[in-house]
Structure prediction request, 466 residues.
Amino acid sequence: MRTGPAFCCALLFAASLLAAERQPNFVFILGEGHGWSSTSVRMDDAVPGSRSDFVRTPNLEKLAQGGMRFASFYAPSPRCTPSRAALLTGKSPAQLQMTFVGEGRRDSGGDLNGRLIPPPAVTELPASEVTTAGLLKRAGYATAHFGKWHLGRVSPTAHGFDESDGANNNGGPDDVANPHPKQLYSMTGLGLDFMARQVKAGRPFYLQMSHYASRQGGDASAGALAAVKGWGGNPSEREIAEAAADFDLDLALGQVLGKLDELGIAGNTYVIFTTDHGTPGRNPPLAGGKGTVSEGGLRVPFIIRGPGIQPGACSQVRAIGEDLFPTIAALAHVSEPLPKGTEGGSLLPVLTGAGKGAVQRPRDVFVVHFPHYDKDAIGPASAIYLGNFKLIRVYETGALKLFDIAKDPGERHDLAGQMPDKARELNQRLTDYLVAVNARMPKPNPGYDPRKPTEAKRGGKRKGKQ
Prediction:
């Protein structure tokens, strides 16, 4: 009988090939409003400050140690509904015309006395759109969604999911101010049961668990609060509350990772963690946060662990939310052609290339179209990325802001004055893209009165988190 290191390596290699030929499972955990400073995972090895110096998320660290982090992963939008739609379909909010949230909002130039009237936004995911769940279901997968849906009032089961706990918005199934942490642990329990049943049935699965808001007002469990208070230091009550809510998220993740080990399927399961937009408020070392097209509103954590992915890797390749749809399709060995209009590209070459490689998308630019009044003083805006350059177009004034985000991720140095040709080039590329996808644009507000106050439209407090 052959033994020795070489023979063992051959067996491991053969086992990995066998796992790759099987249809892998997927667990997609979507956080709500978390930026770099919301976890203890350093998202960019080149930026020491790309993690929290107080929050502790040991299970997320475990996931990162076993998988790959992306230092330049971008949410499709700085708001909840648009990002969730794009993550599920591979199409941008601009193309879907789902550029904003609709619940309890009064985003119109007349109501808010803005210079512009923002365009109406679709808030119900069209039934015609193919989702990741629908694509995988046709490939033989069992599919489930638990947690925050926020893509309209139609059940996720109408969009390719076999199981769900409803078309939940910010209030969750109980319609309360803070579903967290009750619904966090409830959805996790539903997910664990779903996984166990599929393993018993011998069926591959796609499970998505979408968290509710848990920062700046979100509740935390007594155990998490006690743990955070035991960390020491001199944090404020707000810092303790936010860190405890984050610690609850991490504990729930730990339950998922533990269940995968218990079921014996961790080696054939891709676990994905990201979030829909940046943290509300500040996101050091990045500028801005939720509701802005600044880096802090868009650049978010992204970690993926699974077969063929180098443990502990940190990729500097830019990835976008729209990439998840074609990436999961590729990892699942789906032979069905991707739907017309898919804007993302498969990250497979990067995932199997130790974090290096190229992503093939239909366009070489990435656009975030956010033509609404929200939490940024500049008002409605769009951003376009090409290489290391990022251009922001401000619709109220027509101003253009240009940044080299490789050298200046904090967006402190506007280069538009120094590089007018580059600014004009990117501005034209932005126009070309918006025309090509038939994006809805803001229009002049004939009722605008500069004598009236405008504070209500500029990040004022509103009920609920979206």
Notes: The chain is about 30% helix and 15% strand. The domain at 366-457 is CATH 3.30.1120.10 (Arylsulfatase, C-terminal domain).
